[in-house]
Amino acid sequence: MAPVATACTGGGAADGGTVSVGEQSFSSALIATRWWSNSAHRVGSTLDTNHPEAGSAGLSASPTDYCGMLRQTIAAGRSILPGVTANDPALLTSTRAFLAELEAVAPASIAGSWQVLGPAVITFVESGGDSSKVKTVDAAAVRKAVSAVAADAKRSCGVDLS
């Protein structure tokens, strides 16, 4: 599960510096932003920390958006925020937003696997990255979902999630 979790985490300014909101500037680690885009949102748009899943409203299954989001995640690298920790609120916000939007655009053939994998990834991030603290996750179901997602990503999108 860890390779998928690290590929789906993070957020922050594209330049890794500061983000301005109105007249105030913040460290990019304090504000979660999208490293992905889809038909409803642009790369770099700010996420609502109180409602990170809200961005999935209005999205529907789209192989183009789905594959694009996977490609952008791989292109963004394993660590989206410099020095990010599992306790970083931007990490949890961006993980929740990304997974909600990805699940919304996932084709029906793979959506069920994301519905298993998404909550497991969020639980893992909430645990601080400590898999020994993740007791509520069905490990066998997650392994099966990871395999299905990885195989579909490679076959349908040409993306290697391993």
Characterise this structure:
It is a single chain. By secondary structure, the chain is mainly alpha-helical. The protein is built from 5 helices and 2 strands. It has helices at 2-7, 63-76, 89-105, 108-126, 139-157, and strands at residues 18-21, 24-27. β1 and β2 (24-27) form a beta hairpin. Mean pLDDT is 78; it is low at 1-28 and 79-84.
Summarize the structure.
With 162 residues, this protein is mainly alpha-helical.
List the helices and strands and how they pair.
Blueprint: H1 2-7, E1 18-21, E2 24-27, H2 63-76, H3 89-105, H4 108-126, H5 139-157
Antiparallel strand pairs: 1-2
Unreliable parts: 1-28, 79-84
Which class do the helix and strand fractions yield?
mainly alpha
The number of E-state strands comes to 2
Measure the end-to-end span: 10 Å
How large is the share of residues in beta strands?
Answer: under 5%
Q: Which sequence of strands runs across the widest sheet?
A: 1-2
Succession of helices and strands: HEEHHHH
Please tell me how large the radius of gyration is: 15 Å
Q: What profile does the largest beta sheet have? A: 2 strands, antiparallel
Q: Helix coverage percent of residues? A: 40-55%
Mean pLDDT: 78
- Count of helix runs: 5
What is the 3D form? globular
